[in-house]
Amino acid sequence: QTGLQAKELGREIHYFGAIDSTQHKAHELAKGGAPHGTVIIADQQAGGKGRMGRPWHSPAGTGIWMSILLRPELPLYRCPQLTLLAAVAVVQAIRETTGVRAEIKWPNDILVEQKKLCGILTELNAETDQINYLIIGIGMNVNTEDFPSELRDIATSLRIQVGTPVKRIPLIQRILENLEKLYKLYIEYGFSPIKSLWEAHANTIGKRVVLRQLHGSLEGLAIGINEEGTLLVRKDNGEIEKVYSADIENASS
Ligand code: BTN
Q1: In this structure, which of 115, 125, 131, 242 has its CB flanked by the most CB atoms within 10 Å?
Q2: 20 pocket-lining for ligand 1 (C-beta < 6 Å)
Q3: Could you tell me if residue 189 is left (phi over 0), alpha (psi between -120 and 50 degrees) or otherwise beta?
Q4: How far is the centre of ligand 1, averaged over its atoms, from the C-alpha of 22 (Å)?
């Protein structure tokens, strides 16, 4: 792979013209013993998966559909931190290669002008309280010119933002390089440098949010993330709620 500066991530790259889901393939390879840093990329996915069991629109030629296998020797509770780390790597790569000032919506949606440019799906395989492996799936709309009608109002692409086609390979390289750099920083210094970077790129903190969770919804002020990578929301009665997983929206008030 010429031009890729990352040493560990992308040492092994599996490329597919068409696939069901790079996420499935990554699990399969991980179970077969694939090393830390294995990357799976497809031009098209027939069964792209999003968060919360949703489908992910992955047509040919227009996006980055990529899964990265990590094998961190870390306890389970640190998994959300790695998800946030991935969002920082991607948002920085977008800015550095295209100048588009994308923002992170907690935990790891990447938006421009409130429309979704990129989604990240982290899947975990763990034994008791240790991470066995982690798969970070990145889906980025790069050269999409037009979305299906149900996505038109909520999705955007780099091409729509920049006005001209955007090359995918330099962007993929930069994502992998940033991820490798941030991962090293994280292993050496822990979550706090990542937390600051995440907060600097986030559009959620300091805003009123509505959280849709499995068992109902909750409204409050997003006041920050804690050392574990959990979102902290202050409810109107003053109680602070820790939010591990939910869909959030900005409150209309
Ligand atoms: C989200 O719901 O926001 C997450 C979307 C993640 C999509 C990516 S595309 C590459 C990888 N393979 C999949 O099937 N899903 C992820």
Answers
A1: 131
A2: no
A3: alpha
A4: 8
